[in-house]
Amino acid sequence: MATKDLSAYDMEKVPSAENMKFGIVVSEWNYEVTGALARGAVDTLKKHGAKDEHIVVKHVPGSFELTLGGQLFAENTDVDAILLLGCVIQGETRHFDFICQGVAQGATHLNMKFNLPVIFGVLTTDNQQQALDRAGGKHGNKGDEAAITAIKMVALQQGLENGE
Ligand code: DLZ
């Protein structure tokens, strides 16, 4: 599978998600984009065997809040992986930089703190068209890719923890 664009992935190389549990945190900012990311992620998890009742989706106001949303999943549920889905579009101020930096560092921190795959599914684009192109448009759907990454990381973790 090319890691450049997971949207055209080889399904046979993706482990089964049949016994995996997922929490998805979706930012409401730029919801036309993030809603499409979430639909892609859910569809992809299900396509690989995840059960409906093992996929929980929660919303937060903006991408900056994704980290806390992820932490709440980690602390209060038994999910195997958490997907953080957002879309930050460059504006006229430096807000973009602070939000992107905050959520990227937040996601990294959660991975380490909880020893749990926390997937960074945040689009950081110059404009809305670039975001739409990556949320089911000409560059695929990064929500699908976040789902595949989550499945692979859970399989890696379970395999290593079981001595495989
Ligand atoms: C304030 C803000 C701005 C300007 N832009 C975005 C954006 O493009 N994408 C996004 O997800 N959120 C944005 N926000 C909201 C922040 O993420 C956050 O919700 C607020 O700063 C409150 O903490």
UniProtKB/TrEMBL annotation:
<comment type="function">
    <text>Catalyzes the formation of 6,7-dimethyl-8-ribityllumazine by condensation of 5-amino-6-(D-ribitylamino)uracil with 3,4-dihydroxy-2-butanone 4-phosphate. This is the penultimate step in the biosynthesis of riboflavin.</text>
</comment>
<keyword id="KW-0808">Transferase</keyword>
<dbReference type="GO" id="GO:0009231">
    <property type="term" value="P:riboflavin biosynthetic process"/>
</dbReference>
<feature type="binding site">
    <location>
        <begin position="92"/>
        <end position="93"/>
    </location>
    <ligand>
        <name>(2S)-2-hydroxy-3-oxobutyl phosphate</name>
    </ligand>
</feature>
<dbReference type="InterPro" id="IPR034964">
    <property type="entry name" value="LS"/>
</dbReference>
<comment type="similarity">
    <text>Belongs to the DMRL synthase family.</text>
</comment>
<feature type="binding site">
    <location>
        <position position="134"/>
    </location>
    <ligand>
        <name>(2S)-2-hydroxy-3-oxobutyl phosphate</name>
    </ligand>
</feature>
<protein>
    <recommendedName>
        <fullName>6,7-dimethyl-8-ribityllumazine synthase</fullName>
        <ecNumber>2.5.1.78</ecNumber>
    </recommendedName>
</protein>
<feature type="binding site">
    <location>
        <position position="120"/>
    </location>
    <ligand>
        <name>5-amino-6-(D-ribitylamino)uracil</name>
    </ligand>
</feature>
<dbReference type="InterPro" id="IPR036467">
    <property type="entry name" value="LS/RS_sf"/>
</dbReference>
<feature type="active site" description="Proton donor">
    <location>
        <position position="95"/>
    </location>
</feature>
<dbReference type="GO" id="GO:0000906">
    <property type="term" value="F:6,7-dimethyl-8-ribityllumazine synthase activity"/>
</dbReference>
<dbReference type="GO" id="GO:0009349">
    <property type="term" value="C:riboflavin synthase complex"/>
</dbReference>
<feature type="binding site">
    <location>
        <position position="29"/>
    </location>
    <ligand>
        <name>5-amino-6-(D-ribitylamino)uracil</name>
    </ligand>
</feature>
<comment type="pathway">
    <text>Cofactor biosynthesis; riboflavin biosynthesis; riboflavin from 2-hydroxy-3-oxobutyl phosphate and 5-amino-6-(D-ribitylamino)uracil: step 1/2.</text>
</comment>
<feature type="binding site">
    <location>
        <begin position="63"/>
        <end position="65"/>
    </location>
    <ligand>
        <name>5-amino-6-(D-ribitylamino)uracil</name>
    </ligand>
</feature>
<keyword id="KW-0686">Riboflavin biosynthesis</keyword>
<dbReference type="GO" id="GO:0005829">
    <property type="term" value="C:cytosol"/>
</dbReference>
<dbReference type="Pfam" id="PF00885">
    <property type="entry name" value="DMRL_synthase"/>
</dbReference>
<feature type="binding site">
    <location>
        <begin position="87"/>
        <end position="89"/>
    </location>
    <ligand>
        <name>5-amino-6-(D-ribitylamino)uracil</name>
    </ligand>
</feature>
<dbReference type="InterPro" id="IPR002180">
    <property type="entry name" value="LS/RS"/>
</dbReference>
